[in-house]
Amino acid sequence: MNTLLPTTTAGSLPKPSWLAQPEILWSPWSLEGDALAEGKQDALRVAVHEQTRRGIDIVSDGEQTRQHFVTTFIEHLSGVDFEKRETVRIRDRYDASVPTVVGEVRRERPVFVDDAVFLRGITDRPLKWALPGPMTMVDTLYDAHYKSREKLAWEFAQILNEEARELEAAGVDIIQFDEPSFNVFFDEVADWGVAALERAVEGLKAETAVHICYGYGIKANTDWKAGLGSQWRQYEASFPLLQRSSIDIISLECQHSHVPMDLIELVRGKKVMLGAIDVADERVETPEEVADTLRRALAFVDADNLIPSTNCGMAPFPRRVAEQKLSALTAGARIVRDELARPVRSVA
Ligand SMILES: [Zn+2]
């Protein structure tokens, strides 16, 4: 990747209305069988087309082939009973009915590899693929078998590693792990969270990223954020550990958040995927607003290591809003890229 400030997204994009009900999260499919398989591929074509047309440098699948960023992956594993449901508290924030781990978890077949092969076939741009992180997977299930979050996370890390290696072989350039749990369970992050993540990336030649955010703009998250005070310092717990880890890229939320910019200094030396687009507000940022966020971040990250991105996924937005936000991101990055390319003139 030779472009300075290559743009990308955290992951999800809205799905077309013929594939799933628009503007809601975790929307069920509108198609089934062969029509669903074909519909997913067409949605991937649209996602690539829109990202390319709007100047996104590192393209993702827009999560067009999955209903939920964690459970769609888990559906492909054995050892989890989706009929047996328990209510658990997710991210220590909201209650949800979740499937139960009833036995040894195993990946019976590749999960997203066929989708990645398809995506690789329709674009020459660098590809980024997101998988759930081990801790966030654990936090989205009821465990009646291992009875240990750490043990279950370790099993998931090995499974994720198998999937990641196959995604890499399919031509994926960056493998991202979504770990919103890292902003909640600080003791566990230090005890085993980062270690499990490193197990998941073991032996990969592709670049690796971890995405840690404050979630989609749903009510449980906005209520939680409202109680976090004027300075969000959650990253302070995980960043020093990640700085010393083998993960290449740290993805964080920044636009309109109360994250103090200087926390980015804690991952100095790593690449930083900086959220310069708010996903909790439909108002489209101006290019100048995006540029301003990027400029301020450059005090704490080298330009070579800055990857302008979105705060989180954009799945719940109307498509028009998400597309305009992609354009704003590209335009904002271009402003700063041009500034950086301009020779510094000495003042006579
Ligand atoms: Zn996110």
Automatic annotation (TrEMBL):
<dbReference type="InterPro" id="IPR002629">
    <property type="entry name" value="Met_Synth_C/arc"/>
</dbReference>
<protein>
    <submittedName>
        <fullName>Methionine synthase</fullName>
        <ecNumber>2.1.1.13</ecNumber>
    </submittedName>
</protein>
<feature type="domain" description="Cobalamin-independent methionine synthase MetE C-terminal/archaeal">
    <location>
        <begin position="5"/>
        <end position="329"/>
    </location>
</feature>
<dbReference type="GO" id="GO:0008705">
    <property type="term" value="F:methionine synthase activity"/>
</dbReference>
<dbReference type="Pfam" id="PF01717">
    <property type="entry name" value="Meth_synt_2"/>
</dbReference>
<dbReference type="InterPro" id="IPR016456">
    <property type="entry name" value="Met_Synthase_cat"/>
</dbReference>
<keyword id="KW-0489">Methyltransferase</keyword>
<keyword id="KW-0862">Zinc</keyword>
<dbReference type="InterPro" id="IPR038071">
    <property type="entry name" value="UROD/MetE-like_sf"/>
</dbReference>
<dbReference type="GO" id="GO:0032259">
    <property type="term" value="P:methylation"/>
</dbReference>
<keyword id="KW-0808">Transferase</keyword>
<keyword id="KW-0479">Metal-binding</keyword>
